[in-house]
Amino acid sequence: MRDDLLRFALHLADLARPLARAHFRTPLAVETKADASPVTQADRGIEALLRAEIRRAYPDHGILGEEEGGDLGAARTWVIDPIDGTKSFVAGLPLFGTLIALAEHGRPVLGVIDMPILNERWHGAGGRAWLDGAPIRTGARPLSEARLFVNSPDRFRGAEAEAVARLSGEVGLRRYGGDCYAYALLASGHCDLVLGAGLAVYDVFALMPVIEGAGGLITDWQGRPITPDFDGRVVAAANPALHGAALERLAGEPMEPPLACFRSR
């Protein structure tokens, strides 16, 4: 990974942070988008700011953002979620973040998870990951001791809810919510499994280089790599053994996850 691209990604996070902080816990007009998710002037303002800076610095790069769209057709594309966790943001909860990724030919090669209010920043690139500049590694707890985050219990219905219940019943501790912060905590070894559903590329691409660089795995529920057309469901795990155990519980029967998804520790 070129150092200039990584520096630029961190620069984008520097630009976004004060704008998010300026709008936090202030009177905001909240609109509801077609997918029933909320959006504010902060979401739109941050994305517009980052898009302008990317166009200035790298006019040949593509841009895909939650608010203004785009695609992954360019050789290099910046993928932006200006406020991941808008519901937390509008409720005054500081567990929202700005997600910035750079994808090359549809695969994220660097990612930044910036937590504006908590003043914490994770980034990953080149098979390594850091929190505020210090190297991080995922944990090694077994399933019976694992700490599980589930993005929101009301995202799951029917067979999905049953699968989540099977996995949840075998871990040591479970929590709900957290948005991107849960995945960042996994990369730092504080939790071990995160289940998500209803996600999009801009929710996930920035997480992948951070989790993988710290020694973890993030795939879909069948153990397949996350691609631009994934089904919105992800399972992130701290280590291969835990990942395999989680996939078995989600499937409801023993299975062998693809070895190509595993990363050596």
N-to-C span: 20 Å
Number of strands: 15
Number of domains: 2
Segments where pLDDT lies below 50 for 5+ residues? Answer: 254-265
Class derived from helix and strand content = alpha+beta
CATH homology group of the largest domain: Fructose-1,6-Bisphosphatase, subunit A, domain 1
Reading off the top of the CATH hierarchy, the class of the largest domain is best stated as: Alpha Beta
Strand proportion: 25-35%
Order of helices and strands: HEEHEEEHEEEEEEHEHEHHEEH
What general outline do the C-alpha atoms trace?
A: globular
Mean pLDDT: 92
CATH topology of the largest domain: Fructose-1,6-Bisphosphatase, Chain A, domain 1
Helix content: 25-40%
CATH architecture term of the largest domain: 2-Layer Sandwich
Record the strand order, biggest sheet: 4-3-5-6-7-8-9-10
How many helical stretches?
Answer: 8
Q: Cα-atom Rg, whole angstroms?
A: 17 Å
- Main β sheet profile: 8 strands, mixed
Protein architecture, described:
The chain has 265 residues and is an alpha+beta fold. The protein folds into two domains: 3-135, Fructose-1,6-Bisphosphatase, subunit A, domain 1 (Fructose-1,6-Bisphosphatase, Chain A, domain 1), CATH 3.30.540.10; 143-261, D-Maltodextrin-Binding Protein, domain 2, CATH 3.40.190.80. Helices cover 32% and strands 25% of the residues. It is built from eight helices and 15 strands. The strands form three sheets. The protein has an eight-stranded mixed beta sheet with strand order 4-3-5-6-7-8-9-10, with helices on both faces. Strands 12-11-13-15-14 form a five-stranded mixed beta sheet, with helices on both faces. The chain is globular and about 50 Å long. Mean pLDDT is 92; it is low at 254-265. This is Inositol monophosphatase family protein. Its cofactor is Mg(2+). Keywords: Hydrolase, Magnesium, Metal-binding. Belongs to the inositol monophosphatase superfamily. It comes from Methylorubrum zatmanii.
